[in-house]
Every structure is written in C-alpha cells, then in structure tokens.
Amino acid sequence: MKGIKAAILALLMLGAWAQRIEEVPNPRRTEGGWVVDMAGILTAAQKQQLNATLSALERDTGAEMAVVILQRTLDAEPKEFATELFNRWGVGKKGEDNGILVLVALQQRRIEVETGYGIEGILPDSEVGMLLQDMVVPAFPGAITQAD
Q1: Which of 27, 29, 46, 91 has the smallest CB count inside 10 Å?
Q2: What's the predicted TM-score (pTM) here?
Q3: Any idea what the CATH number is for the domain that residue 57 is in?
Q4: What is the DSSP string of 79-126?
Q5: Which domain holds residue 62?
Q6: Is residue 78 pLDDT above 70, yes or no?
C-alpha cells in the first residue's frame, strides 16, 4: 500500500512540473521578450541577456527566435509540443516564415528546434540536428541526451 501511495504521489508531483501547451505564455505578449523559463534555471540577468541577443537578431536579420525552457511537456512529446507552440505563437514574420523556436524539456532531456520555411534555406533541419548533436549535447553531459 505504501508503494502505491508513493507512486501516486510521484505521478502527481511530476504533473505539477509538466506543462500543457496552453499554459506556456507567449513572451512577446506577456513581457515583450523572446524567452520563457518555466523551469526557473536562468537568472534574471541571463534571461535579460538572452532577450537582448534575440532582439538584436531580429533587428539585424528580421528573424524571430523564441526560447522556451520547461521541466517537461505534458500534452505531447517534445517535438510535437515545439511544433504546436511554434504554430500557435506564429514565430516569424508573416509571409517570410523566418521564425525559430528552441524548446528545452529538462526532465525529458530533450532540445527541439522548429524553423519556419524561410529559415530552412539558411539553416536546414539536417544542419540544426548536426549542430545540436555536435555542440549542445556534449556541452551538457547527462543533462541533454537528444536534440532534434
């Protein structure tokens, strides 16, 4: 009986850390920025610096890039979650499809990158995958095991 209660409690706690797509606020609407850190791993200064870098990217290239950090996804696997969030938020300029969304799901040890069609000519999915596997995964041994 104790084991069942512990398992139920663990599942409930896991759900408290998981996010549904509709629970993730669009940072452009809520804060005027590009970063959502629902896992609380970035300091205020780090978040501010990342927002400044992403704002400069938009200013200099026109491309929009959003970063979302969660403990875990609840509605879907991280890849589907990232795709749905990318489409829901409309990352990228209308008609240019020049958006990028980076999703980090910590407990699932996944990083997913969604790109608009306007970005794929510059940064094809295959190159994104290679960059993540060659640079990001090794930089976080044990923390990130898969990146797409």
Answers
A1: 29
A2: 0.81
A3: 3.10.310.50
A4: HHHHHHHHHHHT-S-TTT--EEEEEEETTTTEEEEEE-HHHHTTS-HH
A5: 2-147
A6: yes
Total count of domains within the chain = 1
Q: What does the alpha-carbon distance between residue 78 and residue 66 come to, in Å, rounded to a whole number?
A: 15
Q: Which two tokens stand for residue 70?
A: 């969660």
Q: What integer best gives the mean pLDDT of the chain?
A: 83
Q: Quick one: how many helices (H) and strands (E) in the chain?
A: 7, 7
Taking a C-beta distance cutoff of 8 angstroms, is the pair 16, 70 a contact? no
Residue whose pair of structure tokens reads 């998981």 in the numeric block: 18
Six token digits for residue 125: 């999915």
| 90-121 per-position pLDDT tens digit | 999 999 999 999 999 988 989 999 999 999 88
